[in-house]
């Protein structure tokens, strides 16, 4: 009997792999914010700013890829859709590779108290929706992506990929857009205060 390839094993266990990757992702993010992962080198405030700018660019590119992928699948261009969604997923991995060290080794920025109340409340409302969607969307995005990665277009017709994909893409796009908007408010429209990371490598 031939040994199943890694792709086939993932294909046969998409749900289980989604749960595993989601738990790992949640653990990394929670550990970084909680200061329980002293694995990041110290990053200066200027380094945090540089990473913040780069992250905003990466997230903007991800939005473009997602919108393009949505457009192409609605027009039946499956290969272009697959390429765009794969690019968006790679960009989100790149985002995590910058975001975790930025928070864990550098710190976080908070909007100043002197901004107008309307702006302040709007900022926190958008930030809350962004965070909630980021948390809730992770397993949905992973599930849709793993289905698309391991199944042929013909096979995908017999899976919930299309339905889950619409939910994943819509939520993902909204989360990313709100993230970029809050970045602009925090970094370019109003001031911020800087809070260094809790634990960093010496």
TrEMBL record:
It comes from the Archaea. It holds the Pfam family DUF420. Signal peptide: none annotated. Keywords: Membrane, Transmembrane, Transmembrane helix. The chain crosses the membrane at residues 14-38, 50-71, 83-101, 121-146, 167-186. PANTHER family: DUF420 DOMAIN-CONTAINING PROTEIN (PTHR37692:SF1), HYPOTHETICAL MEMBRANE SPANNING PROTEIN (PTHR37692). This is DUF420 domain-containing protein.
